[in-house]
Hints:
Elements: H1 11-34, H2 42-58, E1 83-85, E2 94-96, H3 99-113, E3 122-128, E4 131-138, E5 141-147, E6 153-155, H4 158-161, E7 176-185, H5 187-199, H6 208-216, H7 221-225, E8 229-238, H8 248-257, E9 265-268, H9 271-284, E10 292-299, H10 302-308, E11 310-311, E12 314-315, E13 318-322, E14 326-339, E15 344-356, E16 359-365, H11 369-375, E17 382-387, E18 394-400, E19 420-422, E20 429-431, H12 438-449, H13 461-470, H14 482-489, H15 500-512, E21 515-517, H16 518-524, H17 532-542, H18 545-550, H19 553-557, H20 564-575, H21 577-589, E22 591-593, E23 611-615, H22 623-632, E24 636-638, E25 647-650, H23 656-664, E26 667-670, H24 671-677
Parallel strand pairs: 2-13, 21-22, 23-24, 23-25, 25-26
Antiparallel strand pairs: 1-6, 3-9, 3-10, 4-5, 4-7, 7-8, 10-13, 11-12, 14-15, 14-17, 15-16, 15-20, 17-18, 19-20
Helix pairs in contact: 1-2, 12-13, 16-17
The protein binds adenosine monophosphate and zinc ion (ZN).
Amino acid sequence: xxxxxxxxxxxxxxxxxxxxxxxxxxxxxxxxxxxxxxxxxxxxxxxxxxxxxxxxxxxxxxxxxxxxxxxxxxxxxxxxxxxxxxxxxxxxxxxxxxxxxxxxxxxxxxxxxxxxxxxxxxxxxxxxxxxxxxxxxxxxxxxxxxxxxxxxxxxxxxxxxxxxxxxxxxxxxxxxxxxxxxxxxxxxxxxxxxxxxxxxxxxxxxxxxxxxxxxxxxxxxxxxxxxxxxxxxxxxxxxxxxxxxxxxxxxxxxxxxxxxxxxxxxxxxxxxxxxxxxxxxxxxxxxxxxxxxxxxxxxxxxxxxxxxxxxxxxxxxxxxxxxxxxxxxxxxxxxxxxxxxxxxxxxxxxxxxxxxxxxxxxxxxxxxxxxxxxxxxxxxxxxxxxxxxxxxxxxxxxxxxxxxxxxxxxxxxxxxxxxxxxxxxxxxxxxxxxxxxxxxxxxxxxxxxxxxxxxxxxxxxxxxxxxxxxxxxxxxxxxxxxxxxxxxxxxxxxxxxxxxxxxxxxxxxxxxxxxxxxxxxxxxxxxxxxxxxxxxxxxxxxxxxxxxxxxxxxxxxxxxxxxxxxxxxxxxxxxxxxxxxxxxxxxxxxxxxxxxxxxxxxxxxxxxxxxxxxxxxxxxxxxxxxxxxxxxxxxxxxxxxxxxxxxxxxxxxxxxxxxxxxxxxxxxxxxxxxxxxxxxx
Length: 681
Ligand code: AMP
Ligand code: ZN
């Protein structure tokens, strides 16, 4: 999936992306519905679908009748179960993630019915995270039951469904009756099934829903019976109008009366009720004992539901108001300020720890002071926080305000006390004391040594803090001089927690990591706004640090993917004299390869993946051009000769580098020979 706005896709791009999205969705549908082995989380899958819809809506000519947008679930594969055609399609639901989304959804329904939204009552239900199933009764006895399948045709799993005790074998209703609901498993049973699996040396199930799905589709129903499946009913329809149910709330009451289990639900007369029901369910989520992934709101009147029908794959009468992620309520006990690697001062809310999607959260970043001002955040406020998968937790809303004063923007840096600034065009507050603000320097060095940049394993925040406090390293460039620093600060191996072995490992790692790709080097500079993508674009375009520094704003802004704002930030950084001095200092200690993947490189070429050093004055072509040629034949260009150098290319009046290379036995290539062996066009 690309992130290009749908509005700026060309027809060709849209077509290519649709083909990709359709095949991905089909693959994930098959994994989910047929194999019960999903690879994506629901929010991830929903993102694929939303992108598909958005592109199809923008490019109606590209919509095909076989697109997954016209279909629910996966085609039923060659399964061992008989096929059952549903009496009415078993649909999927449109997703809403806010009360506003829900309101919009029902406003459309009201418009469709030519009614006022206030005239429509809703039934709020829990959205049980299991698997839907349909059970048919004939004159009070179970006749058969099926899975949702592709929405139109499901699989006959009657024997498996009859092992579920929540599904009565007989009911006191005559004629043909269909009941639909959700098959699920309680968390306690999920845990004990997994504990057994683990002790038997088998792979545990990844989620309760997977157990439900896997168990329902067992050929041997005694396995299903051993899995403690349960069922919540939410739909009933009878032939011959033997049941007098006019509303969804009545339908749920009837289901309970005839022996089914029904989950908590409530009549909602307006959006305030919707919000209240959603919040109430959300706050109980962890104590329910089974998994839900949100709430469902349905038009309460069944005649109106019938008039609304469905459009595409979704009914017009029901919407899923999903939990965007796991959410929890807690209180802000304090607000701390952190100074990041670019000097940005970030407020962090310290909260009463809560458990969210399996992790204990005790701090939540507030991003910037505008967010505090917008939400009027104060210590003591009760907030609702969310976290999707392994994503950083965030504040969704303030659920209860305290009487405390709003947290104010600091005037000085919390770490070094220098006055803070606001940079043009950005809302953040910065400490400009880049090279001597302790917290900023430590944050920066931690980033510098991280796997995104120099990847110096063994040099983490703790070690950096320690060396910095001691004075052993003052700037990131000092990391490469750690060994020399022993003369002044004493042997590292004598420090508590360090031994000769660990010190040697650290020094060896640092030696090995001196060699870095150009894009990673650019990343390591922590230029504001420059992440991996921009770093790669810059490396690709300029091929060396020197040409990046020499580049004009126009050259930078001409790169597809780098706008004028970002260009300004980059130039501003490079033009700063202190930054420039720092880069020069760094360049003395490291050697840079431009190995950003470029196309058309011949892997059999003489210089492919070889390290080249140029020395002397080139006469045939410029040094810069020679470097580019080397890079485009796949070579790494370095400025220092070492035992890792493969070739030294010599021009006129070559000096010490040549002598040193000869001493090391490195292959020497005259300029003419080099030019002849690379393609000069
Ligand atoms: P989705 O597959 O996410 O589009 O959501 C639709 C599915 O939600 C249905 O097929 C049901 O399996 C499930 N579901 C869970 N609880 C309910 C409920 N109370 N009402 C309707 N559908 C529900
Ligand atoms: Zn500072």
